[in-house]
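Budget justification aside, the reviewers requested a transparent look at the raw inputs and outputs of the sequence design task funded under Objective 1. We therefore reproduce one unedited record. The lines immediately below are the structure tokens for a 275-residue chain.
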């Protein structure tokens, strides 16, 4: 998002240390007069442009995101607040499974259906990964990259399931095109990995990139290491139960939230072009 290292001063500074980039952002905001009235309005205690810090920016963005993409008026929310007809019988059956026998809420718990923790799901690996400088493989070891603890290998954060029916493709790398595919994968990760259908992916039509998309799969040692990390052990499900779970996931859609509360701006205070 911040651009390549030689593209602008923020990207260059952030590469040296994350907070050096923040300083560059502060300087830009302080020097662009059109930002000052907006900051003053949001933070009356600010005396002059030089008082704008990255903390003000972060809090403003936090507030904006909470307002703009809030999705808590789905049929599920309406049902929980007493409207018994907000969900269909199939969705209610799916909810009962999700929070009971199917075991989904062991990880997808709380108001956002996530424990905010990291788990290894053995999703089909693909693409250039997030390889570190000393690594020779184009893999993505997940949480391990941050903690250096072996037990965090290939673990990714449990995502929220709010609006999930509208946010395909699924998984950290978008390996599954449908809800059916990703949920089925949860039920039997190893055989799902073995039988992965690559044709569901929409990848850049670029022969150089395509050569590395599945390179990892030819590395027998890496693939056997990959298969050692699996935090899923869910009970089998009938086709009918699977349909009920998927119907429930559709009940998590707050259709009004999909467009965002406010439309995209026509112009921004810096005067930079929008596309
Ligand atoms: C062991 C914890 C755990 C359990 C149990 C679990 N999940 Fe997940 N789920 C995750 C994690 C972690 C991811 C993200 C994996 C990744 O990106 O590599 C995920 C991803 C998903 C996604 C894709 C969301 C997206 O936006 O990409 C769906 C849908 C989902 N889970 C549904 C379910 C359902 C339904 C159940 C019960 C049958 C379930 N999960 C049980 C941890 C779990």
């Amino acid at each position: 998002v911040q651009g390549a290292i030689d593209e602008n001063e923020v990207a260059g500074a952030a590469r040296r240390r994350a907070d050096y980039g923040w300083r560059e952002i502060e300087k830009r905001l302080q020097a662009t007069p059109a930002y000052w009235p907006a900051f003053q309005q949001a933070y009356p205690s600010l005396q002059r442009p030089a008082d704008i810090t990255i903390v003000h920016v972060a809090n403003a963005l936090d507030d904006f995101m909470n307002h703009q993409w809030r999705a808590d008026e789905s049929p599920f929310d309406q049902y929980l607040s007493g409207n018994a007809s907000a969900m269909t019988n199939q969705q209610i059956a799916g909810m009962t499974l999700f929070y009971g026998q199917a075991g989904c809420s062991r990880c997808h718990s709380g108001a956002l259906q996530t424990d905010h923790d990291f788990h290894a799901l053995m999703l089909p690996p693909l693409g250039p990964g997030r390889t570190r400088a000393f690594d020779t493989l184009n893999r993505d070891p997940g949480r391990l990259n941050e903690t250096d603890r072996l037990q965090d290998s290939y673990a990714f954060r449990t995502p929220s399931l709010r609006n999930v029916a509208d946010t395909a493709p699924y998984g950290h790398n978008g390996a599954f095109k449908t809800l059916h595919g990703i949920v089925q994968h949860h039920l039997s990760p190893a055989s799902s990995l073995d039988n992965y259908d690559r044709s569901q992916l929409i990848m850049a039509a670029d022969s150089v990139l395509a050569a590395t998309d599945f390179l990892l799969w030819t590395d027998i040692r890496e693939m056997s290491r990959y298969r050692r990390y699996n935090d899923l052990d869910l009970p089998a499900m009938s086709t009918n139960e699977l349909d009920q779970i998927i119907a429930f996931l559709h009940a998590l859609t707050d259709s009004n939230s999909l467009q965002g509360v406010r439309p995209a701006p026509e112009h921004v205070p810096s005067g930079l072009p929008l596309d």
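Residues 102-104, 106-108, 119, 121, 123, 156, 158-159, 161, 164, 167, 170-172, 179, 182-183, 186, 231-232, 234, 245, 249 surround heme C (CB under 6 Å). Residues 213 and 268 are 37 Å apart (CA to CA). Computational costs for records of this kind are itemized in the attached budget.
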